[in-house]
Amino acid sequence: MNPKPLIFVDLDDTLFQTHRKQAPTAQHKIATVDKMGQPLSYMHPKQQVLANWLFQSADVVPVTARSVNGLKRVNLSFQHGAVCTHGGTVLDTGLQADQDWLALQQRDAAALGGLLQDLPQALQNAAQHLGAIRTQLVEENGRIVYAYAKQAAPEPLFLSQLVQHLPAEIMQHCYVHLNGNNLALIPHYVSKQKAVEFYLNKHDPQRERAVLGWGDSLSDAGFLTCCDWFGMPKNSQLDKFLAQSLIQDHHQKGFLGHV
């Protein structure tokens, strides 16, 4: 049994934030750069303490919406594999695409026929009475992973309304990840949770290791359920959702807890 814990950790807004979300100071550390090599995201002092503790104490596996190329722009050294592109790609310990996971993804994509190629047009059709959007197919390892849409204008936000106009066939096979004026339309077989389950089945099939997880958003909740313990940043999307859910539960029942 490996005595070191195995830790799955989300990156953006968990271990660091972009400079738009926090103004960097002399105590901040550059965490990522953009495609031009310019500083983009920073770790504040507490995040630096957390990251140092994680890497010194455990085998750390990032679980991120970032593409493989996006992961390469993170100034942290990952030596135990990674989950990238919302779970569309699993990297092995050499940070090469895991061929077993890739084969499973290709099999599931083939079962959808041409649906993935049709996603950008479906998004455009759904947005035609709401506002202008830019769409693209996100590809990795020579295959389509998901479709992406971004509002041409940042305000007013309307992508949540767009979802209501997507065809039923697409919603049967895909789920939506919405973040402000950005939307990802992702086939069900692509998910952080499924990718983490695959990683554990391959690298810890007997579930002997202590597994921990950290994530900030509701989209991280799935993979966090694969962990023996998990946590979230203060004031994160998950933290606020949990707090609000507890308040509502208390108001409905008049007490905290379950019978």
Unreliable residue stretches: none
What fraction of the residues are assigned to beta strands by DSSP? 15-25%
Q: Summarize the amount of helix as a percent range.
A: 25-40%
What is the CATH top level name of the largest domain?
A: Alpha Beta
List the helices and strands and how they pair.
Elements: E1 6-9, E2 17-18, E3 29-33, E4 39-43, H1 45-57, E5 59-62, H2 68-72, E6 82-84, E7 89-91, H3 99-111, H4 115-127, E8 133-140, E9 143-151, H5 159-163, H6 168-173, E10 174-179, E11 182-187, H7 192-203, E12 211-214, H8 221-224, E13 229-231, H9 237-253
Parallel strand pairs: 1-5, 1-12, 12-13
Antiparallel strand pairs: 2-4, 3-4, 6-7, 8-9, 9-11, 10-11
Kindly describe this structure:
This protein has helices spanning 45-57, 68-72, 99-111, 115-127, 159-163, 168-173, 192-203, 221-224, 237-253; strands at 6-9, 17-18, 29-33, 39-43, 59-62, 82-84, 89-91, 133-140, 143-151, 174-179, 182-187, 211-214, 229-231. The chain is an alpha/beta fold. The protein folds into 2 domains: 6-88 and 191-247, HAD superfamily/HAD-like (Rossmann fold), CATH 3.40.50.1000; 112-187. The strands form 4 sheets. It has a 4-stranded parallel sheet, with helices on one face. A 4-stranded antiparallel sheet has the order 8-9-11-10. A 3-stranded antiparallel sheet has the order 2-4-3. The longest helix has 17 residues, at 237-253. The chain starts with 5 loop residues before the first strand and ends in a 6-residue tail after the last helix.
